[in-house]
Design goal:
The protein is an alpha/beta fold. It contains seven helices and six strands, in the order βααβαβαβαββαα.
Length: 177
């Protein structure tokens, strides 16, 4: 079996381009180090993505600005970490909703379900969403390293196919999405 010509396949040789954005007022201010973003970078690299970041920004409008810039730059995937909880400053889902065109609720539901199934009752408190902004898939993940690991575990088997579909690819032969 021969390898396809990389020039003939968009993104061949790589699963695509990804950006990690950490939404944290305290990490952005230098109060503590970002611990979730590096977990996402490692997970995306392991999936074969060319990864930029983590880009650490305060929660709220700076997250929306980072997402809009990522969409304009043509990233295939943007994973955010942080800002999905219940505190008054956790605004990442709201600003993400203002950027995406179409939500993909099954991804966020699967991430929460994975955490719950693995003994993390606080996974139910995550308000993260997932959706498409143009052809860029945006997924909000919790700020904890454990929540990021759980998110990567859920995303690893589906992200390449999701990126292919967002690029205009067809459904898998034999069923599935």
């Amino acid at each position: 079996m021969t390898e396809p010509d990389a020039a003939a396949v968009p993104g061949a040789g790589s699963a695509g381009r990804a950006l990690v954005v950490t939404a944290s007022n305290r990490a952005a201010a230098g109060v503590y180090s970002d611990r979730g973003g590096p977990v996402l970078v490692d997970g995306l690299c392991a999936m074969g993505f060319e990864v930029d970041g983590p880009q650490v920004v305060p929660d709220g409008e700076p997250v929306a600005e980072a997402l809009r810039a990522a969409v304009a730059a043509g990233y295939d995937v943007v994973l955010t970490t942080g800002g999905t909880g219940l505190t008054p400053g956790d605004l990442t889902p709201e600003v993400t909703r203002g950027v995406v065109d179409r939500e993909v609720p099954g991804i966020a539901e699967a991430i929460r379900a994975y955490g719950l199934a693995h003994g993390v009752p606080t996974a139910a408190l995550s308000r993260g969403i997932a959706g498409l902004a143009g052809r860029t898939l945006v997924v909000n993940l919790p700020g904890s390293p454990g929540g990021c690991k759980d998110g990567i575990a859920v995303l690893a088997p589906i992200l390449p196919h999701a990126v292919s579909q967002a690029r205009g690819g067809d459904h898998r032969p034999g069923g599935g999405v």
